Every structure is written in C-alpha cells, then in structure tokens.
Amino acid sequence: MIAFLIIFCVLWLFLPVHFWSVEHLRIQKKYGARKGNWITKTLGMISGWGFFACLFFLWIWPQPRYFFPLSENFTLLVPLLDLSISTIHLIISLPIIALGAYLGIAGVKGTTLKVSESHKTDKIVTSGVYSRIRHPQYLGAVLSHLGISVLLSAFYSTIITPLVLLYNVLVAWKEEKELKKEFPEEYNNYAREVPKFFPKLRIRTKNS
User: Domains in the chain: how many in total?
Assistant: First the structure.
C-alpha cells in the first residue's frame, strides 16, 4: 500500500511539469523562440511519458483484487505474468479499453505525434475527432486506466480513477488557458461549439 501511494504521489509531481510545458509564450519570451521550444518540448515529453509510466506501475503493482459475481469461476491464466484474469472482467473492460484506445489514437492522429508529445501546435485542429470533443486523448487516458484496472481486478488502481480524471481535467484546463492566449478568437469560438469531455453527436464546426 505504501509503495502504491508513493507511485501515485510521484504521478502528481508531473502535473506542474505539464503546466510548464504549455506555457510557450512565457518561456519563449524569457529564453527565446528556439531555446523556449526545446524547453517546452522536453518538459512535455517528460510529463507525458512520466504520467503513463506511473499509471503502468499502478496497474501492475501488488494490491488487493476484487471480483464481480461469478467471475472467480471463469478465469484466464497468463503464465508469463503469473496472473489470472476473470473472463467477466475481460468482457466488461474490453469495450472501455477499446474506446479509450480509439480516442487516444484518433487524438494523436488528428494533431500528429509531435504535437502530442511537445504540447505545441501551430493551429487549432477542429476536424475528425476534434470536431466532437476538445480533449479526446485525455478522456481516452481515463477510460483506458479504468478499463485496464478492471481487467486486472486491481482494487487500488480502480478506486483512484476519479483522481486520474481530476488530473486530466486540470491538464485540459491549463492547456485551454494557454491556447486562449495563443489563439484568442479562434480557440474561444471552437470551445463554444465543441464540448470538452463529453462528445457531441452532431458536427457543426468547419474543418480547419
């Protein structure tokens, strides 16, 4: 339990790093465009990969396991990981993981991997999945965390899902704050048309 809490606390240390990584205007003003871009890109990669590395360890760290009714009677053995996965948990978690993966991949595809890693964009993308939701990658991360936690029956990992959601909400809030400074009129118009985390069914924005 103590080791799990330590990893969870380390995860939150990456939040201010992510905040710094999106302050492009301030850092470029202080260090110049070339050095500023390098700094924000480096901070973005550290915060992004650090966040997912912590999640990975939270998923697999030894912790109490829970099972839905009947699930203990139907299990799949994973010899290499010395792990038993309930088929009931598998059935429940796969759609959640699949949706989370789709949102994450579609988000990266829409903005490019470079933008996803560096958190620096030259334009506001409003086409594809971004015409329905402003932060598909962050919603995808939360859904993937929940799905994998259920798949592995990881009790601690599952119950911290609201805090993982809070982390991503804070990241999205900070990114939007900076984007409104960089693209004031364009991003405000986009934000009025497209929801932050709950996708809409109809597309009304024009492709950029």
Answer: 1
